[in-house]
From TrEMBL:
Keyword hit for Membrane: yes
Highest rank taxon of the organism: Bacteria
InterPro entries in UniProt: Bact_solute-bd_prot1, SBP
UniProt protein name: Multiple sugar transport system substrate-binding protein
Region (Disordered): 29-67
Signal sequence range: 1-27
Gene3D superfamilies associated with the record: Periplasmic binding protein-like II (3.40.190.10)
Bias-annotated ranges (Polar residues): 29-41
Presence of keyword Membrane: yes
Keyword line: Cell membrane, Lipoprotein, Membrane, Palmitate, Signal
Length: 455
């Protein structure tokens, strides 16, 4: 799902600059789709969708040797996993060779907008939730509906919520991306610290108040009880307060809501009133404080599994997200694949996408840094138990939360810009004891709305 750690302000700013430049480049070649300052209305999105439908004829099999280019960003262990997926695909499809072009997250989102704007992108590209919609609006992605209609695999083999994240516009959806990876954020706990502090393993339904009480017991002279989360990792806890960052149509901000104010005030209190969380500015950005034993609880992505499995100094696990008024949510969402509109090898690209997404030989590898994604795997206890045997022990707790109570976070066409704005606001809210939180949220609300109004 995106980013394999919280997006830093510097990274976000770099990406924003590149997106602006690529938008300018796109405006020169397709002025009707990218007018500077033009608002993104539903009628415009539907008009773009109708244009896309007219060009979507589905794949045509050439039967000739083909080389396709594939690019995506990567996290811990991803490159070797993708290389093995490609090896297995090429064994099943000897006429197709895959040229793999992985990039780290920041470099990827600097390069791919420019490639798409210049009609020079690879044939299959990794796509981020939210961001995919901005490329649909620029008419840069191939619609996949006709491909699916003639495919041996159908979208109903995947969870509906994940498939929906690749559809735009929301009131007249077409499929422009499909999920290859199901991931999310969970509450990681230091089991050794829990045992030493006499704190039992949290049960489903434990409350925010019980969570704070546990954090107090876990806090020592050398360790804090909890690390306050950043951006998308706020999803589950914010939902416990009844809040969401944006409206259901993904076109407006909710950052000035009473629920957001209550949540951000609670985070601030964890640092300055309860004293169970460190000031974010005091943490070394190059070191994971959970791995270093500096915090006993943290909210992090499933992509941390391979790294955390190497921890030797303490035992760890995942636990249910705390609740407020009976509401419990888990951050969940997909990483996606798309075919650019300008690809010259769409038939071969579609074959590779199908293999990566639907073939068990691929998914048994790709789920190693996330959650099982195929419905048949989600229903297979042996698959779930195999992952749990490698850690985390309570993997099913995470899985059930993501499937049954999963929630996204600011999955809008302006995802990166929103990330930067909220990160800046969090600096003001969390790094100072005396702050007008409502004023900061009002400013954040206005910034996000102005950005969402831009085409």
């Amino acid at each position: 799902m995106g980013q394999r750690r919280v997006v830093s302000t510097v990274t976000v700013m770099i990406i924003m600059i590149v997106l602006i430049l690529s938008a300018c480049s796109n405006a020169k070649t397709n002025n009707t789709n990218n007018e500077p300052g033009q608002q993104n209305t539903k009628s415009e999105d539907n008009k773009a969708a109708e244009g896309n439908k007219a060009t979507n004829e589905g794949p045509k099999d050439s039967g000739k040797p083909t080389t396709i280019r594939f690019t995506t960003w990567y996290g811990a262990g991803d490159i070797e996993i993708w290389k093995e997926v490609i090896k297995r695909f090429e064994a099943d499809n000897p006429l197709i060779k895959v040229q793999f072009e992985p990039l780290d997250f920041a470099a990827y989102w600097q390069k791919i907008p420019t490639q798409l704007a210049g009609n020079a992108s690879p044939d299959v590209i990794g796509m981020h939730v939210g961001i995919v919609y901005s490329y649909v609006q620029k008419n840069q992605l191939e619609p996949l509906d006709a491909y699916l209609s003639s495919s041996e695999h159908q979208a109903d083999e995947l969870p509906d919520a994940l498939v929906a994240e690749g559809q735009w516009p929301k009131d007249n959806p077409q499929q422009f991306a499909l999920p290859w990876h199901f991931t999310g954020g969970t509450l990681y706990i230091n089991k050794t610290a829990f045992e030493e502090a006499g704190v039992p393993y949290p049960e489903n339904g434990w409350t925010i108040e019980e969570f704070v009480a546990a954090a107090k017991k876990l806090t020592t002279d050398k360790r804090f009880g909890f690390q306050v989360p950043g951006f998308t990792m706020n999803a589950g806890l914010l939902a416990a307060f009844g809040g969401v960052p944006t409206t259901e149509d993904r076109l407006h901000s909710n950052y000035n809501s009473p629920e957001m104010l209550a949540y951000k005030t609670w985070l601030h209190d964890l640092i300055y009133k309860e004293k169970v969380s460190p000031n974010p500015k005091d943490l070394d950005a190059s070191v994971d404080p959970f791995v270093a034993g500096k915090v006993a609880m943290t909210v992090g992505g499933a992509w941390n599994f391979p790294v955390y499995r190497k921890i030797k100094d303490f035992d760890w696990d995942v636990a249910p997200m705390p609740t407020k008024d009976g509401v419990s949510k888990t951050y969940a969402g997909p990483d996606l694949l798309s075919i650019p509109k300008d690809s010259k090898n769409k038939e071969a690209a579609w074959k590779f996408m199908q293999f990566a997404i639907f073939d068990p030989k691929s998914q048994e590898l790709l789920r190693q840094t996330g959650l099982p994604m195929l419905k048949k795997d989600l229903e297979d206890e042996s698959v779930v138990n195999e992952i749990a045997s490698q850690k985390p022990e309570h993997f099913k707790v995470f899985l059930d939360g993501a499937i049954n109570n999963g929630t996204g976070y600011a999955f809008t066409p302006k995802f990166f810009e929103t990330a930067g704005f909220e990160s800046d606001a969090d600096v003001k809210i969390l790094q100072k004891e005396n702050v007008d939180i409502q004023k900061v949220l009002d400013e954040l609300h206005d910034k996000v709305n102005k950005e969402l109004e831009k085409k």
